[in-house]
Design brief:
By secondary structure, the chain is of the alpha/beta class. The chain contains eight helices and seven strands. Strands 3-2-1-4-6-5-7 form a seven-stranded mixed β-sheet, sandwiched between helices. α2 (47-52) links the parallel β2 (35-41) and β3.
Length: 240
């Protein structure tokens, strides 16, 4: 049985495939079994071919979206296809160092309480442009004030979680940015870990600051509504 599934959303990241897969293999070398699922989110370059070239030498599976559905859609497709009860995610651009993966999967695999739902990475030493760092800082400040989710950085792609808990969450576009708040909403314990951040290996970002700001504000209001409207009473069976 596969104990860990690593899900990587990718769109036009052909130049990042080989170093990322090699880094994951090194980070997971001590595990008895694991799988890597790359979700090609409507790429128009050679991303799928680059993944296919490595499938014979790595525990690697490829899922393809015919058109781009966005990062949350890609993560959701990967989790649905995953065979492991524990999932780790990281971005496909190489800015999330695979060497940080043990910080995510080790606490979840070792948890014998059944209460830990999410281990979320928080980036330190970010290697982004000044405008992107400032935009992220404001977005994170606003989110913390409204959701009180206790984390300074929810945009980090490095996350580990229980597959069943993730699939029980309400699905919506861009939900990957609100996982700490959503897991806490469902009563799960959330662990935060500092992780490194690297420069992009190849290619360019698929999103602008303006795009992030617009969808972020819209989604933030929706997540706040979801948290407030969650049903507080759980049903009990007669005689239980």
């Amino acid at each position: 049985m596969t104990s860990l599934s690593i899900v990587i959303p990718m769109r036009n990241e052909a130049g990042n495939v080989a170093p990322l897969i090699a880094g994951i293999a090194e980070a997971c070398a001590a595990l008895p079994d694991y799988e890597i699922i790359v979700v090609d989110d409507g790429s128009t370059d050679g991303t799928a071919a680059a993944v296919g070239a490595l499938a014979a030498t790595h525990p690697l599976r490829l899922i393809r979206h015919p058109t781009s559905g966005g990062q949350s859609a890609a993560v959701h497709s990967g989790v649905l296809a995953a065979r492991g009860p524990v999932i780790c995610t990281l971005d496909g651009d190489g800015q999330n160092p695979p060497a940080e993966l043990p910080k995510l999967y080790a606490p979840l695999l070792a948890d014998d309480t059944g209460s830990l739902g999410l281990v979320a990475g928080q980036r330190v030493g970010r290697q982004d442009t000044l405008s992107k760092r400032l935009g992220s800082r404001f977005a994170n400040w606003l989110r913390r004030r409204l959701l009180r989710d206790g984390t300074r950085d929810t945009g980090c792609g490095l996350k580990g979680f229980r597959r069943d808990a993730f699939l029980a969450l309400p699905y919506f576009d861009h939900m990957h940015r609100y996982l700490p708040a959503l897991f806490k909403r469902d009563g799960w314990r959330v662990k935060l870990v500092d992780v490194a951040h690297a420069e992009r290996h190849a290619g360019r970002s698929n999103y602008s600051n303006l795009q992030r700001a617009w969808v972020g504000l819209y989604d933030l209001i929706g997540v706040a509504w979801l948290i407030r409207r969650r049903k507080k009473v759980q049903a009990e069976e007669p005689g239980g």
